TrEMBL record:
GO terms for molecular function: phosphatidylinositol N-acetylglucosaminyltransferase activity. Keywords: Glycosyltransferase, GPI-anchor biosynthesis, Transferase. This is phosphatidylinositol N-acetylglucosaminyltransferase. Its EC number is 2.4.1.198.
Length: 372
């Protein structure tokens, strides 16, 4: 009786010009369906998904109980992790109940509470490749079902196409009659072996979802082509940053030395190999330029070897992994932010750097041009 059953969506008017409609703004973006117009009055309506549980929780404001699912969450650092965390915090402030489900990170296992009362289930599974759990198809069903019923979930929101935990949660939630939403954060190709298999999984998982969200128009086009989902079900909601956290420095930096800041995961997709080629050449052409590189990953060894090879220890500073709370202090120590990604649906780091007052230089890939 605690499992919501599919039902006809309720039509609810949303008044234009204010945010006092029946559905809070953030939830509306996540759950809205295509707009329809009343032929008699000319007014616009939006349909939104709901469930018997949401009615029982609050008969007036209809608050939702949302389960965020992804293999990528704190203490791991990245754009997906930040997106899930800040989206959850905003939904909590709107009065919704939010629960996060991810896999265990080292000794961090079980149920934890983070800022704002956000409840996180660190399921005791270990990742086997790039922070992803081993695909089991049905082995995850008991724990997912337990969380859905215990937390009285009404909406399941999966993040990142590469997350196996996300795909399994969406599949099981749909078979149990829950409303599901999927957010894609990355771009994938069509020709390599990995992308071909991932696209097949995506077609199977997204065949019966309610809504999908992409972070840029380029990402939306990519997701529609890869998954075969109807474009009417896919909405573009760009990422955002908290400008209260990322503010320019009150002290103006000296221009006697130009400091270029790089903060990124040091992996192939983020263009770490490109940095290895670019940094020595820039240092040779411009003697007054210095680099600060923050981040960690398998390509960090190559950057350190480059620094040793060209004797750039005094001009290339390697910080290693930078906690998110310290990102601003690193950004405001430089003049220019450099992003060398080979593929990017939407680069949150560029927004953070621009918010801190840095000039940004980036490769022209994916959804990056949409940010200008």
């Amino acid at each position: 009786p605690l499992i919501p059953r599919p039902e006809q969506p309720i039509q609810a008017p949303l008044r234009s010009g204010d945010g006092d409609g029946d559905v809070p703004a953030v939830t509306f973006l996540l759950l809205r369906r295509p707009r329809s117009t009343n032929a008699r009055t000319g007014s616009s309506y939006f349909s939104y998904v709901t469930s018997p549980i949401s009615h029982a929780m609050d008969g007036q404001s209809r608050k939702h109980r949302i389960l965020m699912v992804s293999d990528f969450f704190f203490p791991n650092f990245g754009g997906v992790e930040s997106h899930i965390y800040y989206l959850s915090q905003c939904l909590l402030k709107l009065g919704h109940k939010v629960v996060v489900m991810t896999h265990a990170y080292g000794k961090r296992s079980g149920v934890r509470y983070v800022t704002g009362g956000l409840k996180v289930y660190y399921v005791p599974w270990r990742p086997f490749l790039m922070q992803n759990t081993l695909p089991t198809l049905f082995m995850t069903f008991p724990i997912i079902r337990t969380i859905l019923i215990r937390e009285r979930i009404s909406v399941v929101h999966g993040h990142q196409a590469f997350s196996t935990l996300c795909h399994e949660a969406l599949m099981h939630a749909r078979t149990m009659g829950y409303k599901v939403v999927f957010t894609d954060h990355s771009l994938y190709g069509f020709a390599d072996v990995g992308s071909i298999h991932m696209n097949k999984v995506l077609q199977f998982t997204l065949a019966d979802i309610d809504q999908a969200i992409c972070v840029s128009h380029t990402s939306k086009e990519n997701t529609v082509l890869r998954s075969g989902i109807s474009p009417d079900k896919v909405f573009m909601v760009p990422n955002a940053v908290d400008t209260a956290m990322f503010t320019p420095s009150s002290n103006r930096l000296s221009c006697d030395e130009i400091i270029i800041v790089v903060i990124s995961r040091l992996v192939y997709r983020k263009g770490a190999d490109l940095l290895v080629e670019v940094i020595p050449e820039v240092c040779r052409l411009f003697p007054k330029v210095r680099f600060i590189v923050g981040g960690d990953g398998p390509k960090r060894v190559r950057l350190e070897e480059m620094r040793e090879k060209f004797s750039l220890q005094d001009r290339v500073e390697m910080l290693g992994a930078v906690p998110h709370a310290q990102v601003r202090s690193v950004l405001i120590s430089g003049h220019i932010f450099l992003n060398s990604s080979l593929t990017e649906a939407f680069c949150i780091a560029i927004l953070e750097a621009a918010s801190c007052g840095l000039l940004t230089v980036s490769t022209r890939v994916g959804g990056v041009p949409e940010m200008t």
